[in-house]
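ok, trying the design again with the full structure, not the truncated one.
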C-alpha cells in the first residue's frame, strides 16, 4: 500500500516538474519574441531569471484558474439540475406529454421558473393531445354510424324478395345517411377554416331583420309540419357583418328550436337593440337542456341526448360553428334553459364593424 502511495507521490512530483518546465518553455518563447521586437539582448543570467519567474507566474495562473472553475462548479448546484430539465424537454419532443419535473426543481431559486414553464407546457400539450384524440374518436364514431347503416341496407337491397315499397324505404335511408356524411364533412371543413382563421370574411352593411325573416320563411316546411306557433318580433336594425356566415348562425338556432320542440309548441324569435349591440334571441317551449349539460352545449360533438340527436340527424357541431362565427364578429352567444320548459339562445352582435 505504501509502495502505491509512494508511486502516486512520485508521479505527481514528476507531473509538477514537467508542468513547470512547460510553463518556463512557454515563457522563453514569449520573452524571445519580446526581445526581438525591442531589438534588445539581455545578459544570459537575467534572461534565465526572467524566464523562470514568468514560467512560475504562468504555472500559478493556470493552477488558480482551474481551482476557480472547480469551485464555481461545486458552488452552483443548479448546473447539475439542468440535466432533468433537458431530459424532460427531449421526452416532450418525442411526444411524451406525461412528463413532470419534481417539486424541488420548481422551488429552486435558479431553475424554478424554467421548471415551472416546462411543467406548464407539458400539461397544456397533454390537454391538447387529449382533445385531439377525443376529436378523432368523435369523428370516427360519427362517420362509422352512417357508414354501418349504408352498408347494411345496401346489402339488404341485394335480396330478390324485397318488395318495391321496402326497396324504396331502404334507398331513402341510404340517401339520408349519405346526406348526414356530407353535412358532417361540410361542418368539419367549416370548423377547420374558422379555427385556422382562413374562412372568407367579407363584412358589409345589411338589414339584419330581413335576413332573420328570410331564414324563418325558409324553415316554414319544418315548423308548419309540426304545427308550431311562431312568434316573431324583429326591430329594423342594420349591421356590418358577413351576411353568409351569420345566416348559418340563425339557421342553426332556428332549426334546433324547431327540432326539439314537440308538435303544437311555440318558437319565439326576437331582434332588438341593447346599447351598442343588436340582440337576437331564439327561444322555444321544447324539452329544454339539463343544468349539467348547459355549460357544454357549445362544445364540439356534444349532445345532451346522444341517441335522440343521432336519430334526428345531428352531429353536435352546429352550435360550435355558431359560436365561432359570432366570436369572429366580435359578439357573444349564450344559452339558458329550464328542463321541460324550453331553451333560449341569445346572440349579441356589435352594430359597428369590429
Amino acid at each position: 500500500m505504501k509502495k502505491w502511495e509512494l508511486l502516486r507521490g512520485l508521479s505527481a512530483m514528476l507531473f509538477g516538474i514537467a508542468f513547470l518546465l512547460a510553463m518556463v518553455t512557454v515563457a522563453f518563447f514569449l520573452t524571445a519574441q519580446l526581445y526581438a521586437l525591442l531589438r534588445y539582448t539581455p545578459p544570459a543570467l537575467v534572461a534565465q531569471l526572467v524566464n523562470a519567474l514568468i514560467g512560475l507566474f504562468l504555472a500559478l495562473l493556470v493552477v488558480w484558474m482551474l481551482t476557480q472553475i472547480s469551485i464555481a462548479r461545486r458552488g452552483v448546484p443548479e448546473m447539475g439540475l439542468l440535466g432533468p430539465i433537458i431530459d424532460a424537454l427531449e421526452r416532450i419532443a418525442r411526444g411524451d406529454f406525461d412528463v413532470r419535473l419534481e417539486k424541488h426543481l420548481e422551488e429552486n431559486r435558479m431553475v424554478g421558473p424554467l421548471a415551472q414553464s416546462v411543467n406548464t407546457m407539458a400539461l397544456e400539450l397533454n390537454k391538447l393531445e387529449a382533445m385531439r384524440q377525443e376529436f378523432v374518436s368523435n369523428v370516427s364514431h360519427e362517420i362509422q354510424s352512417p357508414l354501418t347503416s349504408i352498408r347494411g341496407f345496401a346489402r339488404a337491397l341485394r335480396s330478390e324478395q324485397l318488395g318495391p315499397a321496402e326497396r324504396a324505404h331502404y334507398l331513402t335511408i341510404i340517401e339520408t345517411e349519405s346526406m348526414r356524411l356530407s353535412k358532417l364533412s361540410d361542418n368539419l371543413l367549416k370548423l377547420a377554416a374558422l379555427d385556422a382563421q382562413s374562412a372568407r370574411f367579407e363584412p358589409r352593411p345589411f338589414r339584419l331583420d330581413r335576413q332573420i325573416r328570410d331564414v324563418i320563411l325558409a324553415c316554414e316546411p319544418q315548423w308548419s309540419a309540426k304545427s308550431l306557433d311562431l312568434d316573431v318580433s324583429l326591430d329594423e336594425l342594420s349591421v356590418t357583418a358577413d351576411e353568409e356566415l351569420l345566416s348559418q348562425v340563425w339557421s342553426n338556432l332556428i332549426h334546433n328550436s324547431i327540432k326539439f320542440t314537440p308538435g303544437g309548441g311555440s318558437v319565439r324569435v326576437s331582434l332588438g337593440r341593447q346599447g351598442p349591440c343588436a340582440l337576437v334571441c331564439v327561444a322555444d317551449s321544447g324539452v329544454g337542456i339539463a343544468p349539467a349539460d348547459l355549460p357544454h352545449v357549445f362544445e364540439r360533438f356534444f349532445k345532451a341526448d346522444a341517441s335522440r340527436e343521432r336519430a334526428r340527424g345531428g352531429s353536435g357541431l352546429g352550435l360550435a360553428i355558431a359560436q365561432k362565427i359570432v366570436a369572429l364578429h366580435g359578439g357573444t352567444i349564450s344559452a339558458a334553459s329550464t328542463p321541460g320548459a324550453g331553451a333560449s339562445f341569445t346572440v349579441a352582435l356589435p352594430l359597428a364593424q369590429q
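Keeping the full-length input from now on. Confidence is low (pLDDT under 50) at residues 306-313.
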